[in-house]
Design a protein that fits this description.
The complex is a heterodimer of chains A (438) and B (144).
Chain A (H helix, E strand, L loop, with lengths): L7 H4 L3 H19 L3 H9 L22 H6 L13 E7 L7 E6 H17 L7 E4 L7 H12 L3 E3 L6 H10 L4 E4 L1 H13 L11 E4 L6 H11 L2 E7 L6 E6 L6 E3 L4 E6 L13 E7 L10 E7 L1 E2 L11 E2 L4 E2 L4 E3 L2 E3 L1 H9 L4 E12 L2 E10 L8 H19 L4 E5 L14 E3 L7
Parallel strand pairs in A: 3-4, 3-5, 5-6, 6-7, 18-21, 19-20
Antiparallel strand pairs in A: 1-2, 7-8, 8-9, 9-14, 10-11, 11-12, 12-15, 13-14, 16-17, 18-19
Helix pairs in contact in A: 5-6, 8-9, 10-11
Chain B lengths: L1 E9 L4 H11 L4 E8 L3 E8 L2 H10 L4 E12 L4 H11 L4 E10 L3 E8 L2 H4 L1 H7 L3 E2 L2 H5 L2
Antiparallel strand pairs in B: 1-3, 1-4, 2-3, 4-6, 4-7, 5-6
The chains are: A alpha/beta (438), B alpha+beta (144).
The structure holds zinc ion.
Zinc ion (ZN) binds next to loops of chain A.
Protein name (chain B): ACT domain-containing protein
Catalytic activity (chain A): 2-phenylacetate + ATP + CoA = phenylacetyl-CoA + AMP + diphosphate
Pfam family, one (chain A): AMP-binding
């Protein structure tokens, strides 16, 4: 299966050519970084005085990591590398702590970003023939606007509907025969139940593809979405500090997400030792943005966990691929001393046909011990009416989870529709353990 | 075969009420019911006048429910009759998964609803009839 390239020369460039381009661009980004108060200090401390200290890509390791906390502390202009006259757009996130982070874009920065997003869209086979309904939040969050501009540049018919109001989304899908949507995986699952509730059949829609991202999800969730809608679902990866969507995207082969190596340098490091890891080994994703100069950001700790897939993709693109995001270093749960990722629990649950698509993970204390409760809904279409089978089901979930995470959870079965639904990012973990004891 | 409607109901205030509300809205009459307690949830078993309609009404409200085949047997309300029935079942190696009964007319007629394991393979209706019990049809059950 071959689809056209957006920029064939660069997408199929040899490793040597890519690395030469990376080095050239990295030096320019270091130049920009020296114009910011934050990096001027940080790079001097690391013994660097100019981009001349970068002689090969190996020298990237001289540059210290930058963290989200650095961004917060630099608010509002500590990482601004140009005059405000040059700034064309601002994206900002408030975060949970209340201290915002901000990313400034020059006009050129917006253009280069948009071009990479267009590349993403095209590598899934989407084209100007498609009607694209963008259900990701617009505004300061980059997910909506990022895909909007890229899809528009790729020539698609873009419907900028933003997130929420599911009935209206469904109406628009019918009215304009939307063929491609962009949404969080949990919202895709939610819309499917709304279709059922309103007796809208898939035949009334023209849906063919979904771009899913903005929250970690398992392969089983992707498969579930593909089966529920009879469509292809493509994983998308981006983060607001690295422009937003367009950092990495799956091509038609759906075998990992190509990250555009002329735009970003991706490293994988061991989150505890900070050592660089080989392709194939899972660790924290570290990204250097090579194409943004108003807010340069180098060796940024994403706190996302993934690995670089070894080997070449069948599509012919030479840019390497990132595995799905397996979790975040900061959403790892420590339960009675054992490390557990919510994604591991999700993976188990989604394989069991008798449970619905919504679930919740609750943590509290029972005496001195942590107690893990996993709440799932019965999938009404698979319900047989037998009490024995329900007890079997509960037992099966407990055993499967125990086999994966080594902790024996409490499993609670609920009626369909009991658990809260989310139109944006789902809140799957409720941690009620006293903070000082964690 | 007579049908019983099994509904998954969480053990929280108001859940039973929302089942009966849905049944009321669809004008469905409940003939008999039993609740099987399973801790956090229960299984509500209903004998109704219009099982298929009741099933659709509850499904539409997103309840997890299922229609199960059940054996409704008329048992004369006299000492020893229930024993006679269970003896026949035991002699024929028929396993009862779930059962409940009610007296329809004191000293005269009782009804026994049985959920039988692998009902279709057991030939249970015939065995019970041959032992002198009346097995009620779906119509007879809803006309009680
Ligand atoms: Zn590919």
């Amino acid at each position: 299966m071959q689809v056209p390239f957006w920029d064939e020369r660069i997408e199929t460039a040899s490793r040597g050519d890519l690395e030469a381009l990376q080095l050239e661009r990295l030096k320019k980004v270091v130049d920009s970084a020296f114009k910011t108060p934050f990096y001027k200090k940080r790079l001097a401390k690391a013994g660097m005085s100019s981009s001349d200290d970068i002689k090969s890509l190996e020298d990237l390791k001289k540059i210290p990591f930058t963290t989200k906390d650095d961004l917060r502390k630099s608010f509002p202009k500590g990482l601004l590398a140009c005059d405000m006259d040059e700034v064309n757009r601002i994206h900002s996130s408030s975060g949970t702590t209340g201290i915002p982070t901000v990313i400034y874009f020059s006009g050129e920065d917006v253009d280069t970003w948009t071009d990479l997003v267009a590349r993403c869209v095209v590598c899934t086979g989407a084209s100007k023939k498609d009607v694209f309904q963008n259900m990701m939040t617009y505004g300061l969050f980059t997910g909506g606007l990022g895909l909007h501009y890229g899809a528009e540049k790729a020539g698609m018919t873009v419907i900028p509907v933003s997130s929420g109001n599911t009935l209206r989304q469904v109406q628009i899908m019918q009215d304009f025969q939307t063929s491609v949507v962009h949404a969080t995986p949990s919202y895709m699952l939610h819309i499917r139940t709304v279709l059922d509730e309103n007796d809208i059949s898939l035949k009334q829609l023209n849906l063919q593809k979904a771009f899913i991202g903005a929250e970690p999800h398992s392969e089983n969730v992707r498969k579930k979405i593909e089966e529920l809608y009879n469509i292809d679902a493509y994983n998308s990866y981006g983060l607001s500090e690295m422009n937003g969507p367009g950092l990495a995207f799956e091509c038609v082969h759906k075998a990992g997400m190509h990250f555009w190596e002329d735009g970003y340098i991706v490293e994988i490091v061991d989150p505890e030792t900070d050592e660089n890891l080989e392709d194939g080994e899972p660790g924290e994703v570290i990204v250097t943005n090579l194409i943004r100069h108003a807010t340069p950001l180098m060796r940024y700790r994403t706190r996302d966990l993934a690995s670089i897939l070894p080997g070449q993709c069948e599509c012919g693109r030479t840019h390497r691929r990132l595995s799905r995001i397996k979790g975040r270093t900061d959403d790892m749960l420590i339960i009675n001393g054992v490390n557990v990722f919510p994604s591991q629990i999700e993976e188990v649950i989604m394989k069991i046909p008798e449970v619905g698509t919504n679930y919740q993970i609750c943590l509290d204390k029972q005496g001195a011990l942590d107690r893990l409760t996993v709440q799932v809904e019965i999938y009404s279409k698979m319900f047989t009416g037998s009490a024995g089978e329900l007890e079997n089901l509960r037992h099966r979930i407990v055993e499967k989870l125990k086999g994966t995470i080594t902790i024996k959870p409490l499993v609670k079965l609920h009626e369909p529709g009991f658990l809260p639904v989310y139109e944006g990012k789902a809140k799957r973990v409720i941690d009620e353990r006293p903070k000082d004891e964690q | 075969m007579t049908k019983q409607l099994n509904v998954f109901v969480e053990n929280r205030p108001g859940r039973l009420e929302s089942v009966t509300q849905s049944l009321l809205e669809s004008n469905i009459n409940v003939r008999a019911f039993a609740m099987q307690d399973r801790g956090d949830y229960g299984l509500l078993k209903l004998i109704v006048d219009k099982p298929q309609e009741a099933y659709l009404a509850l499904s539409e409200k997103n309840f997890a429910c299922a229609l199960k085949d059940t054996l409704a047997i008329s048992v004369p309300d006299k000492p020893g009759n229930l024993h006679k029935l269970t003896t026949v079942l035991a002699e024929n190696d028929i396993n009862v998964i779930d059962a409940y009964g009610f007296v329809l007319e004191p000293d005269h007629q009782g009804i026994c609803c049985l959920e039988i394991e692998n009902l279709k393979e057991t030939n249970a209706p015939q065995i019970v009839s041959e032992a002198g019990f009346e097995v009620l049809s779906a119509e007879e059950l809803s006309d009680l």
